[in-house]
Design brief:
Length: 334
């Protein structure tokens, strides 16, 4: 083996590995490149050890691989740091960037629900059109189906069931948004269910019970659905109007943001499930239960418009052109 020629042929790759191993922060692509170069250089060192008597070259490559190995293994063990960064940077930033979309979904959803509630409560024609039975006392009476729904199952099992169901609904809203109409249909059906329930309870003079059982968990739960619907529709609109980027680049970028929101909403819905399973059916006075729900909602909005806005503005200030392009970086791995 001509050691000098071999070294000359691979020196640029070794220098690149040394550069990546010494950097304090790496993008996802750079982290992948670091792992690839580390494996390739390990094979080259093994070949040199078999054919080359040059101890200086072997010692230099061994030291380089030791640095790279520490970086690769250290990055893989930094899972908790990445999880923390997700919830302190990536998730709130994605929520803040998409807030006009989910705020618009919230306004339309609540308007439709309120209109349906008034129609059902005040006009008999609504029952005919919507196929609602004339006698709904089993649903609306004290201790009826509307109230017993929250207490007929063990609290832990009910919380898990609610979490799973809500996660399924939000996932559908997120990932059918690219087609727009399925997401709109799903949101409308949820608005219809809420509006009909409110209208029937209002007609029975039980609005106090309706709000007492809906608001503790429903405030944050509905917000999560609005976020999912808004992010999904934004993804669909990006396919129609990609802006200055190519359609493929724009959809890929928005798709990453949508996936980030989907993952983060799992935690939000876990909180909703716990509130619905343990707070809503509890014996606490209705004002206390509602206050707990409003507190959870306020903390979420503070998270979005406090933490999320600060992250987005900081990235915009750090960007070379003064704008935030929404790209993410990590310490050494995805």
């Amino acid at each position: 083996m001509d050691v000098d020629a071999y070294s000359y042929a691979h020196r640029r790759a070794w220098e690149r590995l040394d550069y990546l191993a010494r950097r304090s922060r790496l993008t996802g692509a750079e982290a992948d490149e670091l792992v690839t170069l580390y494996r390739r250089t390990s094979q080259q060192l093994a070949r040199l050890q078999s054919h080359s008597p040059d101890p200086e070259l072997i010692a230099g490559l061994s030291a380089l691989l030791a640095r790279a190995r520490g970086r690769v293994l250290g990055g893989r063990s930094d899972t908790w740091s990445e999880i923390g960064r997700f919830f302190t940077h990536r998730f709130p930033a994605a929520l803040y960037r998409s807030w006009p979309w989910w705020a618009g979904v919230a306004a339309a959803f609540l308007l439709v629900s309120a209109g349906l509630a008034v129609w059902v409560a005040r006009f008999d024609s609504a029952r005919t059109v919507l196929g609602i039975p004339r006698d709904t006392g089993g649903l609306t009476e004290r201790g009826g189906a509307f109230e017993s729904y929250y207490s007929e199952h063990p609290q832990g099992a009910f919380a898990a069931q609610v979490w799973t169901n809500n996660a399924w609904v939000t996932a559908i809203a997120l990932f059918t948004g690219v087609l727009i109409l399925p997401a709109v249909y799903l949101l409308f059906m949820n608005a219809l269910n809420l509006g009909v329930s409110a209208g029937l309870m209002a007609d029975a003079g039980r609005l106090d019970s309706f709000f007492g059982f809906i608001l503790p968990h429903g405030t944050l739960e509905l917000t999560a659905i609005f976020v999912a619907g808004g992010a999904g529709l934004k993804l669909g609109w990006t396919l129609i109007d990609p802006g200055r980027l190519s359609r493929l680049e724009a959809v890929a970028r928005q798709g990453r943001a949508t996936a980030t929101i989907a993952l983060g909403l799992v935690g939000v819905l876990l909180v909703c499930g716990c509130i619905e399973g343990f707070v809503t059916p509890s014996g606490l006075p209705a004002p206390v239960r509602i206050a707990i729900g409003f507190t959870a909602e306020a903390l979420f909005l503070l998270y979005v418009f406090g933490v999320g806005r600060r992250v987005v503005l900081a990235r915009a200030a750090d960007a070379p052109d003064g704008s935030d392009d929404g790209r993410q970086t990590t310490s050494s791995t995805h």
